[in-house]
Amino acid sequence: MSWGLLRDVLSGVNKYSTVVGRIWLSVMFIFRVLIYVVAAERVWNDEQKEFTCNSRQVGCENVCFDHFFPVSHARLWALQLILVSTPSLLVVMHVGYREHREKKYKKKLYKDKGNIDGGLWWTYFFSLVFKTGVEFTFLFVLAWMYEGFIIPHLLKCEIKPCPNVVDCFVSRPTEKTIFLYCMVVSSAVCILLNICEMTYLIIKHCRNICEKRSIKQAKRLKCGCDSSELKQAQRKGLRNGTLRSSVSMCTL
Amino acid sequence: MNWGQLHLILGGVNRHSTSIGKIWLSVIFVFRIMILVVAAESVWGDEQSDFVCNTLQPGCKNVCYDQFFPMSHIRLWCLQVIFISTPALLVSLHVAYKQHEEKKCLEKRQGFLKKEEVDALRKQKMRIVGAFWWTYVTSIVFRILFETVFTYMLYFLYGGFQMARLVKCSASPCPNTVDCFISRPTEKTVFIIFMTVVSGVCGLLNVAELFYLLVKACVRQSHRRHHPHHLSRSREHQQNEMNELLSIDAKQKVALELSKTS
């Protein structure tokens, strides 16, 4: 499978991400996609060929393999990586939509098209929520389907046409368990990064709102300079670095 | 997708590395990743299919293979290369942060920057001083740590750096002690020794780079002690510049908000 296409598409997302978003992208490509491609895919390559059951009954191995591995780990991770990467495309599409609007009305509608404010903030936030949801869902599906994060070396199978309870042996269980842990831990790290990014966006948004409010208040004082309100605005201005503005406005 | 993405990231950091760092990067890509991709993977390709045990007992081969090869050498080396390359991310993050700050300062001083000026800023080499020195040294320490840990893991898992031809296995469901034969043991031993030696060389290069940076920092410190006036004058000058920029920034912000609402 060619992951280069995903990498090329997502490299465009980097421009419109926050700092935490860029760290998330690096973790994604280095710790997840790279490890998946160079290591995990190869380990799961011969999973069915080397799955052996202690029976000569024709079809017994096939049926037991299908019962214990309904969807291979490798395929689940490939799906997870694709679904987790695609919400970032929403952000790119929104920026594209802003560019289209500016071209349509032939004037500058946005100070900076890539700035995460207004509608783009909500798109970005929604993409983070969706990513986190997908990560949790896949972790749950993995844990539920395989009853934990350990791959046993021996499975007991009694599905027809196996004549009775037969022992079936999994190929490379220890190596697979190690990679399972690698992928689960990197998934958890990505979830943490998403939560940090959501918190960062919310705090930044609230700070912007507070700054705008304090500036509005200082402007209202321009018309009627009430001394106590002036002091309050001055105090707020000191905090936000707009002190000179409030003083100069009242001296006009 | 292959190792190209890693090469892109590390290539970006290369510009800001010392000469020893650049040699280290070449050794990583030529002697480790290329050898891994071109040679070692074909040698280890049939490791399980050609691992044979002297028994017809189903499952015995699987269990014995899993016991003697909990983690394949190839995967260990791939993980090792990935892990020792990641501290470079710290350096590239720091560089990106500094370049962003410089771009902001320049924009405040002279307004809109042309594309060529932005590109020139990106291509400028950063001096390894101050906070960047600490980031760089931390990345080298982590590299040395990962290198050592992985080499030790390889030694511990396989009881040395040699691949035996025959291993004796008595894990259930093998009926008794069975002889199991490993595929291409001599070729594998040659590659294991080669990769271990290259890993040692990379470790030594990292240690040398660390010493080089420490010595350089000590020389810089002693130079500062002998010429303190030069340093304090330059610090005062920097502080004055920052204060000027901050006051310009505050005035511009307010003027913009006023113009928006009026």
Automatic annotation (TrEMBL), chain A:
Keywords assigned: Cell junction, Cell membrane, Gap junction, Membrane, Transmembrane, Transmembrane helix
Keyword Ribonucleoprotein: no
GO annotation, biological process: cell-cell signaling
Domain of life: Eukaryota
UniProt KW Membrane keyword: yes
Spans traversing the lipid bilayer: 21-39, 77-97, 118-146, 178-203
A molecular-function term among this protein's GO annotations: gap junction channel activity
Localisation: Cell junction, Gap junction; Cell membrane
Record-annotated Connexin N-terminal domain positions: 42-75
Gene3D superfamilies in the cross-refs: Gap junction channel protein cysteine-rich domain
Annotated Gene Ontology cellular component terms: connexin complex
Broad class of where this protein is predominantly found: other
Biological function: One gap junction consists of a cluster of closely packed pairs of transmembrane channels, the connexons, through which materials of low MW diffuse from one cell to a neighboring cell.
Subunit composition and interactions: A connexon is composed of a hexamer of connexins.
Similarity comment: Belongs to the connexin family.
Protein name, UniProt field: Gap junction protein
Taxonomic source organism: Chiloscyllium punctatum
From TrEMBL, chain B:
Residue ranges annotated for the Connexin cysteine-rich domain, each copy included: 146-213
Transmembrane parts of this sequence: 21-40, 74-97, 131-158, 191-215
Keyword entries, A-Z: Cell junction, Cell membrane, Gap junction, Hearing, Membrane, Transmembrane, Transmembrane helix
Recorded topology in the membrane: Multi-pass membrane protein
UniProt xrefs under InterPro entries: Connexin, Connexin_CCC, Connexin_CS, Connexin_N, Connexin_N_sf
Connexin N-terminal domain segment(s): 42-75
GO MF, one annotated term: gap junction channel activity
Example GO biological process: cell-cell signaling
Main localization category: other
Region forming the signal peptide: none
Localization terms from the record: Cell junction, Gap junction; Cell membrane
Protein name from the UniProt record: Gap junction protein
Source superkingdom: Eukaryota
GO cellular component: connexin complex
Keyword Cell membrane applies: yes
UniProt subunit comment: A connexon is composed of a hexamer of connexins.
SMART domains: CNX, Connexin_CCC
Function noted in UniProt: One gap junction consists of a cluster of closely packed pairs of transmembrane channels, the connexons, through which materials of low MW diffuse from one cell to a neighboring cell.
Family: Belongs to the connexin family.
